[in-house]
Amino acid sequence: MTDLSAFLPEALSQKRRLRSLFLFQVYVSAFAGLIAFVFPKAFGVFFTDGSVSDGVHSGAGASNSQGSVAHFMIRLYGALLGTQAWLVWVVAKVDDGYVKRAFIQGYFGCFAASLAAVVAAHAQDDGTMAGHFFGALKIVILSILTAGYGWFAFFQPPAVYELPRDH
Questions:
Q1: Residue 166 counted as domain residue
Q2: Cα–Cα distance between 82 and 20 in angstroms, integer?
Q3: Structural domain of residue 111, as residue ranges?
Q4: Count of domains in the chain?
Q5: What transmembrane ranges does the database entry give (predicted)?
Q6: Is 37's pLDDT higher than 50?
Q7: Second label for 151, Cα 20 to 30 Å away, from 4, 115, 143, 145?
Q8: pLDDT of 104
Q9: Is residue 132 part of a domain?
């Protein structure tokens, strides 16, 4: 295992920051996508009060179609997250600055809009989403991704989009 004090400066060097951001997104998206697709009921902790036994899952099954629709929508979202993880994993290895820049700009818009939607849902306090641990976690992760992709979209020189020569 690598020493963290040696790993962090390397991961945060100018040419490696973008790859580090991509890898962070890959791991978060792959984990969340797998949980959402395979265990949609467990993914429900990200909604309402964080409880697995209520919220989007109340009445799931043959007697109540709303819970089944919620599970279906969560599985579709999980499939999108998993696919997103795969695409970012592959693009991180591509040496085409235009492709990377398009991904960066697209993900900045995606995560900024997602962050705005989550903050608005929390602010409305209508039961759609609630704060607590998982509410704060959603906001923190989306803030990191928005800030990271915003940094690369607006403040980094084109050379950052190219792969380091020692890949």
A1: no
A2: 18
A3: 4-161
A4: 1
A5: 21-39, 72-92, 104-123, 135-155
A6: yes
A7: 4
A8: 92
A9: yes
Most confident by average pLDDT, 9-18, 21-30, 60-69? 21-30
Confidence band for 127, pLDDT divided at 50, 70 and 90: low
Classify residue 164 by its DSSP letter: P
Rounded Cα distance between 149 and 65, Å, is 38
Global pTM? 0.75
Residue 27 maps to a domain: yes
Contact 77, 36 (CB under 8 A): yes
- Token pair of 145 as six digits: 């991704």
pLDDT for position 62: 47
The amino acid at residue 58 is S
The verdict on residue 167 lying in a domain is no
Where does the chain have alpha helices with state H? 4-11, 17-38, 40-43, 65-91, 97-124, 132-154
The number of CA neighbours under 13 Å toward the Cβ of 32 is 22
The full length of the chain comes to 167
- 86-109 in b/e form (b: 16+ CB < 10 A) is eebbebbeeeeeeebbebbeebbe
**Residues contacting residue 77 through CB under 8 Å, at least 6 positions apart:** 33, 36
